[in-house]
Specification:
This protein is mainly beta and 546 residues long. It has six helices and 35 strands.
């Protein structure tokens, strides 16, 4: 081994050192470099000085007249005790990559066409001066990635694991520096005369071969432990005994006043990583809003998402029932609707969108049920239980009948002045019937206040209500109410048109037709019956009178 660094070549940023009692630096993949230090300082600080101890520590060494960094990091734990007239300081510190591992964040990367390197670059924007060496393929990410309650370091380790790789921190820089994946660059070393020991990590082989890497063989898990005075970083590729190896872990300690580095050398196959998952997302739902809808998929913006890029991933939407041939219940949300993205497993690729109801606020007193069936004077009505003449209906050929403000109405009455009131009577009867059953069409109520009701609403005012007394279909001011008693009520202020291609049959024990001024029946053959306020006109080729 070459001449190494002695304790005399070391100095601490904490002050002048009389002696270093203990120094150990450990580094391994996906972890921050650790420093464990015990040193006796030359001066005799007061206890107050301990409270002013800096948050960072640097261990420097001198080589060829230049001072270089052996370890720079953030103090995680420290203590001080009296040793005679001096003070002994003990501390534990982590390298500067620790700053990526202190704050949990939530954000999504929804654009599946963006590249891996662009994701790494976006994350590193929060850490000016820090360096991430990108050694994974720069290719489209191909899936949604969701960083949920993870630190950036946790997420990066998980992200890189998708490429069977790991993070490798470098503790010898002023700021955070690490490799995302192993570097292909090789370093020549002269270790042929260095002491070493060998081993074979069959436990690692067994784990990897059963978790996605079945092509591995035990010989690829031979490992060397080399002692050297030379300084190399974690994850470095070296040539040793005619083969390529990677520094899988390292340990630096003071032995008899010399800094000795122990490097664990592994083949690349033994450095492979299994896929990591964020188990925190299992079973959680994240609130958001729909941004776009296409068939049975939606794009969403998520509440609290700190990424620049939202609403680009097509999430499946969970419908009530559906089958592979497209049959079933199809009811999609609308743009701007509140939704939840549900993560049923630890894999974010399996996320889908579900409905969200807890944003609904009950209507204030005096409000009305949106889109509910409502009556109105002059509305066209039809009731299957017998009725009075309505108003203003006209007939046209081709099997169609249209009413311009009247139509079929339930109730009683006949012709003349009573006819004008037919529509209003029918509307009042419909409202009264629902009110008697406790589901008034104009009842001022919250649509979610009664679990016995089944409601479907759209923002355009279309409603389907299934209530104990029957079913209500409404669109704006028009509605159809079907009662369990057998009655049906139509409300259509603008008119009702019935088209029958071959035959239209109206059967009833009693049938009443009502119109305001004119009631006309005619067919395509030219026959016509027209009832006017003061006369009745009959037109046909033949008229039979009994």
């Amino acid at each position: 081994m070459k001449n190494g660094i002695t304790y005399k070549d070391l100095n601490l940023s904490l002050g002048e050192v009389i002696s270093i009692e203990e120094l150990e630096i450990r580094q391994r993949p996906n972890h921050h470099g650790e420093l464990h230090l015990s040193a006796v300082l030359n001066d005799e600080p007061e206890e107050a000085a301990f409270y002013e101890m800096p948050e960072t520590v640097t261990v420097n060494y001198r080589e060829e007249g230049k001072e270089k960094i052996l370890f720079k990091g953030i103090i995680a734990d420290s203590s001080m005790k009296r040793v005679g007239n001096r003070r002994e300081v003990k501390l534990t510190a982590y390298d500067a990559t620790w700053i990526l591992d202190t704050k949990r964040k939530t954000r999504s990367f929804q654009n599946t066409s963006r590249t891996t390197h662009s994701v790494l670059a976006e994350i590193m924007e929060a850490y000016p001066g820090c360096i991430c060496m990108k050694n994974i393929p720069d290719e489209p990410i191909g899936q949604i990635w969701f960083q949920y309650e993870e630190t950036d370091w946790e997420f990066l380790a998980r992200f890189v694991s998708a490429y069977s790789d790991k993070l490798y921190a470098d503790a010898t820089y002023q700021s955070a520096r690490f490799q995302a994946g192993l570097s292909a660059a090789s370093i020549d070393v002269d270790w042929e005369q260095n002491p070493y020991r060998m081993g074979k990590d069959l436990e690692r082989y067994d784990y990897l071969s059963k978790n996605g890497f079945s092509e591995l063989i035990p010989q690829q898990f031979v490992e060397y432990y080399i002692e050297s005075y030379e300084l190399y970083t974690l994850g470095s590729r070296v040539s040793y005994k005619g083969a390529s190896w990677y520094i899988g872990s390292l340990r630096r300690t003071l032995k008899e006043g010399l800094l000795v580095c122990t490097y664990e050398l592994r083949q690349k196959q033994a450095m492979l990583a299994t896929r990591k998952y964020n188990r925190r997302i299992t079973g959680i739902s994240v609130d958001g809003k729909t941004a776009q809808i296409n068939r049975d998929k939606v794009r969403v913006t998520l509440n609290g998402d700190m990424t620049r890029e939202q609403g680009t991933y097509w999430f499946p939407f969970s419908t009530v029932a559906a089958s592979s041939d497209g049959s079933g219940w199809y009811s999609m949300p609308e743009e701007g609707d509140s939704i939840r993205v549900y993560f049923p497993t630890k894999d974010e690729k399996e996320a889908y969108v579900i409905t969200k109801h807890d944003s609904h606020m009950p209507a204030a007193p005096g409000g009305s049920l949106s889109g509910g069936a409502s009556g109105g004077g002059g509305g066209s009505n039809a009731s299957g239980g017998g009725g009075a003449p309505g108003g203003g209906g006209s007939s046209s050929g081709g099997g169609s009948s249209s009413g311009g403000g009247g139509g079929f109405a339930g109730g009683t009455g006949a012709g003349g002045g009573a006819a004008a009131a037919g529509g209003a009577l029918a509307a009042g009867a419909a409202a009264a019937a629902l009110a008697a059953a406790g589901e008034g069409a104009e009842k001022k109520e919250d649509p979610m206040d009664d679990p016995s009701k089944r409601n479907i609403f759209t923002k355009d005012g279309n409603v389907v209500q299934m209530v104990p007394s029957g079913v209500i279909l409404s669109a704006g001011e028009a509605s159809v109410t079907m009662y369990k008693t057998g009655n049906i009520n139509f409300i259509a202020p603008a008119g009702i048109t019935i088209n029958a291609g071959k035959q239209l049959s109206i059967n009833g024990e009693r049938i009443n037709l009502s119109a305001g001024t004119v009631l006309e029946l005619k067919n395509n053959a030219g026959s016509d019956i027209k009832m006017l306020p003061q006369s009745i006109s009959l037109k046909a080729k033949e008229i039979y009178e009994n």
